[in-house]
Each structure stands twice: as C-alpha cells, then as structure tokens.
C-alpha cells in the first residue's frame, strides 16, 4: 500500500510538472513543439509573446535570446525586477520583421509557427494593415485558407507566419521603452537608492491633475508624504510607473477624500490621461 501511494504521488508530481506552461527548456529558449501565440498590446503598440520561464533558464538569457535588454524586460514586466522563478510569465516584444511569411524550405526544423490571437474589435484589415504592417491580406489568407473576414471574433487564433528558433537579433528590436518612462529614468534610479531597505507606505485611489506647474518637471501634490520626497505612481490602465517629487500638500479645494495625489501636466502626458480623475497605485516612504 505504501509503495502504491508513493507511485501515485510520483505520477501526480509528473503531471503537475508537465502542466506548467514552460517555454523551451534548460537548453533551448524556444523549441519546435512550443506554441508561439502573440497578441497586440494597445498600451505599448507592441506585438507581444508570453514566455514562461523554464527551469534552468535565466531572465538574462531570455532577454539575450529575444534581442532585448534587461531594462526592456523590466519595462514590460515591472514585477520581474524584484524576483522571478520557473513558471513566471515574461512579456516579450516580437518585432514584425522577425515574423516570416514562410520558413526556409531547406530548414523547416529551425522555425516555429507563429499564431495571433485577435483582440476585441479587431478586424482583418486592422490586423494586416496596422498591427502587422503588411501591404495586403494575401499572407494571412494563404496561411488560413478557411478564413472568413465577416466572421472574425475576439480570441480567434490565426496563423500569421514563422519565426526562427535561434532567437531575434538585437538590431531587429526597435525602441521598447516608452519615451516618458525613459525620460523619468533619473528619478527612478534615485528612488531605488533612497528606498533600499525602507518600509513603503502603499495607497490605492484617485489621482487628479492640474494645469499649473512646470510642464517639464515630474511634480505632485500629496496629503502626507514628506515635502521634496519621491513618490512612485503606477497607472494600471497604461501599465506605466512614473516617479515624481512631492512639492506641496493637496489644497483644501480638493474635497474628494478618494483623491490621494494631484499630478502635474507632465505626468498627465506620460499616462495619456483624458479623464479628470484616474485610478492609481502609489508608494512613498
């Protein structure tokens, strides 16, 4: 009986390991048996692929395989900056030039098919013209003989081409980091230095914005954070994290208790905000 229970546990363990959505293995970051399914990220304008880190893989190795830098990976996956482990998802930007219409006929084993998952409201025209930037829909129709443009829906998966298994050359990758995030890099580095080992105060709530203030500086008003200290502001909608200086207290005219921070015009541009109020997560010390 004990032997049977041990065997049963081993079987369940193996099944659990196989169920993990790893991409590649300890030797290869991408294998022919892996399913490469990409999607369009509206916030960044990038075509993205979810790479699930396999045992034996390193985040540095993943970045090199896809022609990215660690800063690129952290921009797309802020949570991986702290730590990562096998099974964690790393969102990877896939340049359009890396997707071929057909694989080289003499080396089929060195290519993996690439599929695209349609988003809500996407059309065939939008897919080939804007997302893939193709001259026409011939490539998509050739790869999907039964494609009916009149019956396309969200989450529909289409074959869009092939990618080589030896990775993506760095020169094919374009600018990954958002220009505002890049411009904010100095305060981000200062935040890391100042907050190391300190206990953070986290808040979730509304952000309001003002037209006043220097349009070229990262500034906020806050109710309790020390004046001239730094604050971290995350906008879940745009998935951007920006750092700013606390210049003053929120004025009494802002009576809504759910408003936890008032941001300057530069932050409004960085987050792409149109509404007078928007939801944010903040941290300060």
Automatic annotation (TrEMBL):
It comes from the Bacteria. Residues 114-160 form the LysM domain. Residues 1-19 form the signal peptide. PROSITE patterns: LYSM. Keywords: Signal. This is LysM peptidoglycan-binding domain-containing protein. It comes from Neolewinella aurantiaca.
